[in-house]
User: Which sequence fits this backbone?
């Protein structure tokens, strides 16, 4: 408003620069059409030193370009301003530059240097906006500069700049398609980006530049799936659409078995022949299955990646953005197994509440879906009922959906509804309704007669459109089985007495003529009546009377010969030349004379040829070969740039292409671990050893997986999955799985339990969020491995609380043979009560002895102290030794860093305590507990609601899990599960209460003077209880 | 993606155009004007049009057409949704989305469009981010601006785009911290002549107005969340918490926003707050008919029904209406044939009634199409579905916010079928009656 008021003052008078104005439209007259006379002062203003003046001038200029194709005298002034410091001026200059750069290329080049400077700015936002403007200047000469800038920005520190780089890619591509190869490199790089900010934009660039390079997606597929929920909504749409296409090329049809059954025996040798050397494991199975019988085919197992996509997109159905909902809906429609597609119906029905344009698009898509999957929308039938306030195009589409949904059970309700519609004021809509009734009648045999009767009655409607439509529909219906409906034809014959609408009369006459054989007695009588009133009829009726007469003459010449002659004679002298012509023509054709020639022989064939029954089918049939939700689908024509939705592959391509490298050392660590376990009985619980090291190692790598704070529970499961991922990779060579089996046998005492637990675990794993992760074992390929994994998982849950968690301090590889693990022994550290005891276990895996193990160069946060363990003088090859050291963490989870030294090497290591280890148990009675709790209210109390894990509903497990997570002792006889402890350094009380309610709901309360400890503890215990 | 945008007023003038890629001539709009003419009503213009070289996707909002030009395949909903977002943003900034307002603020609108799309792909559509870059005009600011020559373009660079919560700007400060939630429910219903519900459902929306300092983390819980059948959320709501605990946990955007939309399933019986007794009849002889409508309360849960309004689309043949209303006023628009009866508050002791005669065009056949009766109403302090907010908790900040929840029930698309009687019925209506019976027989 300030802007407009500003240039309102300026205007008036006539133009001094005699440029012709373009598009002088009256509507915008007030503001734009008057000329700006003081252009010279604009120039001065821009040259001035004051930012405010420059701004004023720029505002005027921008206001002008909005409406008028204008001369370029200000362009060079823009150059000066682009050096200006004020952000406001800059922005307006940019708007101007981008708009006119194409027309004023030379001048635009002058400003490039400014942007190049901007690209180096320390502020990320300035870097981004410089790149944005630079790439928007459509001048071919600067392509190399843009390319360079994009490449640089693609590796920028700031994700925002990288996002801008992704945006710039399509701009450059449209400017110069020859840069494609280089741009693909950038896209590949940006696709690997792990931030949500970049993901949407880069996929958009991918779609515009190289949608055919599906191979670039493989490595990023799982990441994209997992990031999806946090990407901004516009990006989500693009990613989902792209992933739909991707999934169509990579996975098998989940409805394969059904569709094959439908097709009959389709699959034989060629079905599987293509990928002989792709997957050995799979292929073997398939070879067996190849034997002809279909029944023997191995059941379809969904690729876990396929499942991942479906699961991660489902929550987006709840998005407020209709485009996102539609994208998910089409993804489910094209990719999900039949049984699961239903979930999208509710969301789509919700969109019908939105703006009418949204409804229009959604209904088009629903119409297509209802043809294939009618059952899905049947429960929502009433949502498609039509309101008189709907725009006509919406009404017609809703009608289409209702028609598609009609079946034997609901047809009566639908017909009743249609009846209301027939009385609507909107005649186009009434016509559409009549057609819909006709279609219902064709599709559902039982109501055909009812519909027909109803339609016949509509013939007497005053509105011609309605009548014409009814006649057309009746005609179609009758053509299907005319012999059954002679009574309707009779009925219609009767109607000729009453109905005055010429169109209807004409239609009835046509029908009688066409089916005169079915009404042999009535037809001549109708003709008689018509002959009587011939002169008073409308022209179209007259034509049909002639038509009827001709047909009757051919079939029943005895009775009608004279009548026909009479009618033809009347017509001969009619005022209308059409009718005269027709009469002459017909007379020649049907009345045999010596001159009539060959044609009259064929008169009967000409007039009474069997007309094919018209097919009544939905205009939306077969539209689903277009990707739903796309422009092409809506228009039912291929739009430019439309990417075909590929057919399902007959055999799945190698799923391992999507595997992402797990950092090398993690992989071998788990392998080593297992081997170690085999050789020597470990003192720690088996399961802990499995997941412990990987967990600590992986959490760093995969922290980006955590969508928000609430998903803390996922990190644990995520790393477990990743452990299994590495396992599965190993097992490809087949040897590893055997080892694991042996390993299982070693634990004989637990074996029975395992077997019982196997199934529930498998199921619960499916339910809970484990699968929400990238790293999944391909279940059917490595069934054995995953079974083992399940065992490990259940072992972990039933592991006794006394088992202490082991952490890795030094890995065997990095330690050149020396591996060190530590655990928090939970014993009081005798030399200093304020220290946490850390028990270390040294294993010498090397061939040579290790000497003089000790600690050096301890780096600590202020206040922290370390009591070193006494030097281990000799650790022979293959031997193990333990030592205990004390660390005072000062009640913080800061890591203690130090060097572990041997006689030859020094290793930097660090110990970071989980918060639960920073306390020691204290004994409190219930009363004391309550009293203490009362003093630690308000800020010191943190309450969190949670749902307990299925396996953790009984008191025993809860207690076990809490005490495992934190070094606390239970308050005896407490009504709730109460735990107490004190922090080691400052002896602050830590009180934990777990109150359980029905159905696994529970409330966790932590009271602690130290709020930081409290918050962290809540997180840890939550994790322990919900997992 | 989106190539250009044209804003067109209802008389068919293009009053603003913006191109994100190379410039496309205005002549492309001619195809649209053609379709616009064909459609008669502006609502009936197909949202998607195909021209030889371009595709036109348009929306109709506030008597304006937002017409975008597309060159290649793009999901149409993507464009439609974006155009609505543009209209929403303009409304958010200037209070309404109309031609006058846009012309008055043309530079700001232009700047907004520039920020919202980059090369045709949406860049910043969150109102919080946009407001940081381009400040919405206020009276005070416009005064200050004219005096000092400052503009609405923010001096600071927006940081919202960089954070993990792109919908909230950082460094929000208020002296009064408050969070208000409006639970607004709309009843969509179709009743037949006898008052039986053909179809009814409740659509609800929670509008929030949150002005809280810092980065608050709110949790809104309901007494009876199971009522909610289908929901859609603002992106700030954590979906997982909803799935597991049925509470809304979110870091709110600053200012006004729509927190969630919900739908109460039709399995639950929907209370219909009013009933309508109506009869409209036409005499076969003579150019007149009669109309008699009475409205009374049905299930109002003890609250008063306010803002009651009845709209009837009369058959085209009805020339004028000579009626008397016991309460409120009525108007009959001769051009559109719409009868509006504005009643106001519904008094259960004295039911409002509208009675009188209708004049039809002499010589024309009697109307045979059914008028429809639409009802508008409001009930304060009531969510008709029975939904109740139980509590709002705040984490992450230490102050005590002022909290408030308001409930409101409105009639959405509330429609009643009317069957007219035409005395001395002609054959047609007789036959229709016959058919109706026939259908019913078959259906049972």
Assistant:
């Amino acid at each position: 408003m300030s802007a407009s008021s500003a240039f309102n003052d300026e205007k008036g008078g006539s133009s001094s620069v005699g440029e012709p104005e373009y598009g002088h439209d009256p509507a915008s007259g007030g503001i734009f059409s008057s000329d700006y006379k003081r252009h010279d002062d604009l120039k001065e203003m821009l040259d001035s030193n004051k930012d405010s003046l420059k701004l004023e001038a720029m505002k005027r200029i921008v206001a002008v370009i909005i409406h008028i194709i204008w001369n370029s005298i200000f362009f060079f002034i823009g150059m000066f301003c682009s050096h200006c410091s004020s952000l406001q001026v800059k922005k307006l200059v940019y708007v101007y530059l981008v708009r006119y750069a194409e027309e004023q290329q030379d001048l635009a080049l002058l400003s490039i240097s400014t942007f190049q400077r901007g690209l180096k700015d320390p502020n990320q936002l300035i870097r981004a906006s410089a790149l944005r403007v630079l790439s928007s200047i459509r001048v071919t000469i600067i392509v190399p500069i843009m390319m360079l800038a994009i490449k640089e920005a693609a590796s920028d520190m700031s994700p925002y700049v990288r996002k801008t780089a992704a945006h710039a890619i399509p701009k450059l591509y449209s400017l110069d398609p020859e840069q494609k190869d280089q741009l693909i490199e950038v896209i590949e790089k940006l696709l690997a980006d792990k931030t949500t900010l970049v993901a949407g934009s880069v996929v958009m660039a991918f779609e515009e530049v190289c949608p055919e390079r599906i191979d670039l997606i493989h490595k990023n597929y799982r990441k994209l799936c997992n990031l999806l929920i946090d990407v901004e909504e516009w990006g989500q749409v693009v990613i989902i659409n792209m992933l739909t296409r991707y999934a169509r090329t990579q996975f098998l049809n989940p409805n394969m078995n059904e569709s094959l059954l439908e097709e009959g025996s389709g699959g034989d040798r060629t079905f599987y022949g293509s990928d002989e050397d792709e997957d050995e494991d799979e292929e073997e199975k398939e070879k067996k299955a190849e034997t002809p019988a279909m029944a023997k085919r191995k059941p379809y197992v969904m690729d876990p990646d396929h499942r991942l996509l479906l699961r991660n997109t489902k929550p987006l159905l709840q998005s407020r953005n209709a485009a996102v909902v539609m994208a998910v809906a089409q993804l489910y429609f094209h990719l999900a197994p039949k049984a699961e597609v239903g979930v999208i119906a509710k969301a789509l029905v919700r969109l019908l509440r939105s703006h009418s344009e949204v409804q229009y698009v959604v209904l088009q898509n629903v119409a297509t879906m209802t043809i294939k999957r009618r059952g899905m929308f049947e429960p929502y039938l009433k949502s498609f009922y039509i309101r008189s306030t709907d725009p006509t195009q919406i009404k017609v589409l809703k009608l289409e959906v209702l028609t598609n949904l009609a079946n034997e059970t609901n047809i009566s309700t639908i017909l009743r509804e249609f009846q209301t519609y027939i009385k609507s004021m909107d005649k186009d809509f009434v016509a559409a309704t009549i057609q819909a009734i006709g279609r219902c009648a064709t599709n559902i045999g039982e109501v055909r007669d009812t519909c027909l009767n109803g339609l016949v009655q509509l013939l007497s409607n005053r509105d011609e459109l309605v009548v014409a439509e009814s006649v057309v529909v009746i005609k179609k219906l009758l053509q299907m089985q005319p012999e059954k409906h002679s009574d309707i034809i009779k009925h219609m014959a009767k109607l000729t007495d009453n109905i005055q609408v010429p169109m209807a009369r004409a239609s009835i006459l046509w029908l009688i003529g066409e089916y005169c054989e079915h009404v042999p007695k009535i037809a001549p009588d109708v003709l008689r009546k018509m002959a009587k009133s011939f002169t008073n009829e409308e022209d179209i009726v007259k034509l049909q009377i002639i038509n009827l007469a001709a047909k009757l003459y051919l079939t029943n010449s005895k009775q009608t010969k004279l009548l026909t002659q009479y009618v033809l004679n009347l017509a001969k002298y009619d005022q209308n030349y059409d009718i005269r012509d027709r009469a002459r023509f017909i007379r020649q054709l049907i009345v045999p004379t010596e001159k009539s020639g060959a044609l009259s022989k064929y008169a009967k064939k000409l007039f009474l040829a069997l007309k094919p029954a018209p097919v009544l089918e939905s205009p939306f049939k077969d539209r689903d070969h277009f990707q739903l939700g796309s422009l092409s689908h809506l228009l039912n024509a291929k739009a430019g740039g439309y990417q075909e939705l590929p057919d399902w592959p007959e055999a799945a391509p190698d799923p391992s292409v999507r595997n992402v490298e797990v950092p090398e050392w993690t992989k071998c660590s788990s392998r080593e671990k297992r081997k170690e376990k085999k050789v020597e009985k470990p003192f720690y619980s088996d399961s802990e050893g499995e997941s412990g090291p990987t967990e600590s190692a992986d959490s760093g790598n995969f922290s980006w997986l955590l969508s928000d704070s609430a998903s803390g529970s996922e990190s644990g499961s995520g790393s477990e999955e990743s452990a299994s991922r590495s396992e599965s990779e190993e097992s490809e060579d087949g040897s590893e799985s055997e080892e694991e089996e042996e390993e299982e046998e070693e634990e004989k005492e637990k074996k029975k339990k395992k077997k019982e637990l196997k199934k529930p675990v498998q199921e619960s794993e499916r339910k809970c969020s484990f699968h929400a992760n990238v790293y999944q074992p391909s279940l059917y390929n490595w069934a054995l491995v995953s079974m083992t994994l399940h065992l490990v998982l259940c072992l972990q849950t039933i592991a006794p609380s006394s088992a202490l968690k082991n952490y890795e301090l030094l890995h065997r590889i990095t330690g050149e043979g020396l591996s060190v693990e530590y655990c928090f022994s939970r014993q009081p550290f005798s030399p200093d009560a304020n220290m946490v005891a850390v028990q270390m276990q040294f294993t010498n895996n090397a061939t040579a002895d290790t000497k003089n193990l000790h600690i050096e160069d301890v780096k600590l946060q202020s206040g922290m102290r370390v009591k070193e363990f006494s030097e281990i003088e000799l650790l022979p090859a293959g031997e193990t030794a333990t030592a205990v050291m004390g660390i005072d963490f000062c009640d913080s989870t800061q890591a203690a860093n130090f060097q572990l030294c041997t006689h030859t090497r020094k290793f930097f290591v660090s110990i970071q305590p989980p918060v639960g280890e920073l306390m020691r148990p204290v004994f409190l009675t219930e009363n004391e507990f309550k009293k203490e709790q009362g003093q630690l209210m308000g800020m010191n109390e943190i309450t969190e609601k949670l749902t307990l894990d299925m396996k953790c509903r009984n008191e025993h497990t809860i207690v076990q899990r809490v005490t495992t997570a934190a070094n606390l002792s239970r308050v005896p006889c407490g009504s709730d599960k109460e735990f107490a402890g004190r922090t080691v350094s400052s002896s602050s009380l830590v009180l934990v209460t777990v109150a359980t309610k029905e159905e696994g709901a529970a409330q966790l309360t932590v009271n602690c003077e130290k709020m930081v400890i409290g918050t962290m503890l809540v997180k840890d215990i939550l994790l322990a209880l919900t997992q | 993606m989106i190539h250009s945008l044209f804003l067109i007023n209802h008389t068919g003038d293009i009053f603003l155009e913006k191109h994100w890629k190379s410039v496309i001539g205005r002549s492309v709009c001619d195809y649209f004007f053609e379709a616009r003419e064909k459609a008669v009503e502006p609502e009936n213009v197909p949202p998607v049009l195909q021209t030889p070289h371009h595709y036109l996707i348009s929306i109709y909002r506030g008597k304006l057409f937002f017409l975008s030009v597309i060159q290649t395949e793009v999901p149409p909903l993507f464009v439609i949704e974006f155009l609505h977002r543009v209209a929403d943003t303009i409304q958010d900034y200037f209070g309404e989305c109309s031609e006058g307002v846009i012309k008055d603020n043309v530079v700001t609108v232009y700047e907004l469009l520039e920020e919202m799309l980059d090369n045709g792909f949406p860049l910043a559509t969150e109102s919080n981010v946009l407001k940081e870059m381009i400040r919405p005009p206020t009276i005070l600011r416009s005064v200050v601006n004219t005096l000092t020559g400052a503009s609405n373009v923010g001096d600071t660079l927006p940081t919202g785009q960089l954070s993990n919560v792109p919908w909230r700007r950082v460094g929000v400060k208020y002296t009064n911290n408050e969070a208000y939630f409006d639970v607004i429910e709309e009843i969509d219903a179709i009743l037949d002549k006898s008052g039986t519900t053909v179809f009814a459902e409740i659509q609800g929306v929670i509008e929030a107005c949150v002005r809280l300092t810092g980065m608050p983390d709110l949790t809104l819980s309901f007494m009876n969340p199971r009522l909610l059948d289908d929901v859609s959320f603002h992106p700030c709501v954590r979906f997982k918490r909803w799935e597991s605990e049925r509470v809304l946990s979110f870091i709110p955007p600053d200012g006004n926003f729509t927190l969630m939309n919900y739908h109460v399933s039709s399995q639950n019986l929907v209370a219909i707050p009013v009933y309508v007794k109506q009869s409209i009849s036409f005499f076969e002889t003579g150019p007149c008919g009669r109309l008699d409508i009475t409205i009374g309360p049905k299930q109002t849960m003890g609250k008063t029904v306010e803002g009651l309004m009845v709209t009837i689309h009369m058959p085209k043949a009805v020339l004028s209406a000579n009626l008397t209303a016991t309460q409120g006023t009525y108007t009959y628009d001769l051009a559109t044939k719409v009868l509006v009866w504005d009643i106001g508050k519904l008094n259960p002791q004295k039911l409002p009634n509208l009675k009188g005669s209708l004049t039809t065009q002499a010589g024309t056949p009697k109307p045979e199409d059914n008028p429809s009766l639409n009802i508008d109403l409001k009930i304060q302090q009531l969510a008709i579905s029975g939904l109740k907010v139980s509590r709002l908790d705040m984490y992450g900040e230490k102050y005590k916010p002022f909290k408030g929840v308001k409930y409101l029930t409105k009639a959405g698309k509330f429609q009643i079928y009317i069957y007219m009687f035409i005395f001395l019925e002609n054959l047609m209506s007789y036959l229709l009656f016959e058919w109706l019976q026939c259908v019913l027989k078959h259906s049972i």
